[in-house]
Amino acid sequence: MAEPISVLVTGAAGQIAYSLLFSIAKGDVFGKDQPIILLLLDITPMLPVLEGVVMELQDCALPLLREVIATDKEEVAFKDLDAAILVGSMPRKEGMERKDLLKANVAIFRSQGAALDKYAKKTVHVLVVGNPANTNCLIAAKSAPSIPKENFSCLTRLDHNRACSQVAMRCGVPATHVKNVIIWGNHSSTQYPDVHHCKVSMSSGELACFDAVKDDSWLKGDFIATVQQRGAAVIKARKLSSAMSAAKAICDHMRDIWSGTPKGEFISMGVYSTGNPYGVPEDLIYSFPVQIKDKAWKIVDSLAINDFSKSKMDATAAELMEERDTALAFLAA
């Protein structure tokens, strides 16, 4: 058996973590022969709830789970980490301005970035889930100067999975028959779900998405809007935000970092934009198509970008620059 790896989940008493922890602990993410030490961080008032989560994990009697440590202390939670999944953030409350949300989250992710810098392994892989995920990820990365920027990513896999599923349902095929959709930009309603490079396996063979769907106006209109607004639609229906699907996307994202992406396929994740081949402004966490090998991601280059796509990519970049500049002003204050 391999040596155990230490995996942190923040916001660990919340509903996303409740859907996530079982999958991590039973080996769906880091491998079926990889023992795990789970570190669970939450705020002090949530510790009694967290204790119940720990009991449940113990009661699952999982062979790979070596230890579960529940804490409200960063120096305990971030020590010697191999992977950090930062789910906890300040949620947007009714009547809250976006800048107020950013200010609250800058404080959280500056603190967690500093804790990563001080206590975690320099090889730690950090996934930011808490919204606004892209900008929170950038703040965490900037607050951990001794850890490579390439080790930080934010979750746009949920949007990627949503896009795959919409195309699959439209074509009457399983979601696994759809590959190489792209989410460009921000995990917000400005994101751009792009299917110009997507392939769909149909009974007649593999087709380009536009040939498989045969409805260009849907692909350039309602499809994009559906993926962009899906989170809000779930909240309206459930009165709660996406948890099961978010947890599944987190598992997909971390599994691909650990195990790599299949040959000829790429997935979407928010990564550091500096040096990218698509003219996206530098110093953002922006969602790109990436391929992963040996735990290192590489942006897929030389994809043709038409004017329709370029305008959408620019719009989401503009929002991210505004978010970044607001957040950095708070960081400097």
Automatic annotation (TrEMBL):
<dbReference type="InterPro" id="IPR001557">
    <property type="entry name" value="L-lactate/malate_DH"/>
</dbReference>
<dbReference type="InterPro" id="IPR010945">
    <property type="entry name" value="Malate_DH_type2"/>
</dbReference>
<keyword id="KW-0560">Oxidoreductase</keyword>
<dbReference type="GO" id="GO:0006108">
    <property type="term" value="P:malate metabolic process"/>
</dbReference>
<feature type="binding site">
    <location>
        <position position="98"/>
    </location>
    <ligand>
        <name>substrate</name>
    </ligand>
</feature>
<feature type="domain" description="Lactate/malate dehydrogenase C-terminal">
    <location>
        <begin position="156"/>
        <end position="330"/>
    </location>
</feature>
<feature type="binding site">
    <location>
        <begin position="129"/>
        <end position="131"/>
    </location>
    <ligand>
        <name>NAD(+)</name>
    </ligand>
</feature>
<protein>
    <recommendedName>
        <fullName>Malate dehydrogenase</fullName>
        <ecNumber>1.1.1.37</ecNumber>
    </recommendedName>
</protein>
<feature type="binding site">
    <location>
        <position position="131"/>
    </location>
    <ligand>
        <name>substrate</name>
    </ligand>
</feature>
<dbReference type="InterPro" id="IPR011274">
    <property type="entry name" value="Malate_DH_NAD-dep_euk"/>
</dbReference>
<comment type="function">
    <text>Catalyzes the reduction of aromatic alpha-keto acids in the presence of NADH. Plays essential roles in the malate-aspartate shuttle and the tricarboxylic acid cycle, important in mitochondrial NADH supply for oxidative phosphorylation. Catalyzes the reduction of 2-oxoglutarate to 2-hydroxyglutarate, leading to elevated reactive oxygen species (ROS).</text>
</comment>
<dbReference type="InterPro" id="IPR001236">
    <property type="entry name" value="Lactate/malate_DH_N"/>
</dbReference>
<feature type="binding site">
    <location>
        <position position="42"/>
    </location>
    <ligand>
        <name>NAD(+)</name>
    </ligand>
</feature>
<dbReference type="InterPro" id="IPR001252">
    <property type="entry name" value="Malate_DH_AS"/>
</dbReference>
<dbReference type="InterPro" id="IPR015955">
    <property type="entry name" value="Lactate_DH/Glyco_Ohase_4_C"/>
</dbReference>
<dbReference type="InterPro" id="IPR022383">
    <property type="entry name" value="Lactate/malate_DH_C"/>
</dbReference>
<feature type="binding site">
    <location>
        <position position="105"/>
    </location>
    <ligand>
        <name>NAD(+)</name>
    </ligand>
</feature>
<dbReference type="Pfam" id="PF00056">
    <property type="entry name" value="Ldh_1_N"/>
</dbReference>
<dbReference type="InterPro" id="IPR036291">
    <property type="entry name" value="NAD(P)-bd_dom_sf"/>
</dbReference>
<dbReference type="GO" id="GO:0030060">
    <property type="term" value="F:L-malate dehydrogenase (NAD+) activity"/>
</dbReference>
<keyword id="KW-0520">NAD</keyword>
<dbReference type="Pfam" id="PF02866">
    <property type="entry name" value="Ldh_1_C"/>
</dbReference>
<feature type="active site" description="Proton acceptor">
    <location>
        <position position="187"/>
    </location>
</feature>
<keyword id="KW-0816">Tricarboxylic acid cycle</keyword>
<feature type="domain" description="Lactate/malate dehydrogenase N-terminal">
    <location>
        <begin position="7"/>
        <end position="152"/>
    </location>
</feature>
<feature type="binding site">
    <location>
        <position position="92"/>
    </location>
    <ligand>
        <name>substrate</name>
    </ligand>
</feature>
<dbReference type="GO" id="GO:0006099">
    <property type="term" value="P:tricarboxylic acid cycle"/>
</dbReference>
<feature type="binding site">
    <location>
        <position position="162"/>
    </location>
    <ligand>
        <name>substrate</name>
    </ligand>
</feature>
<comment type="similarity">
    <text>Belongs to the LDH/MDH superfamily. MDH type 2 family.</text>
</comment>
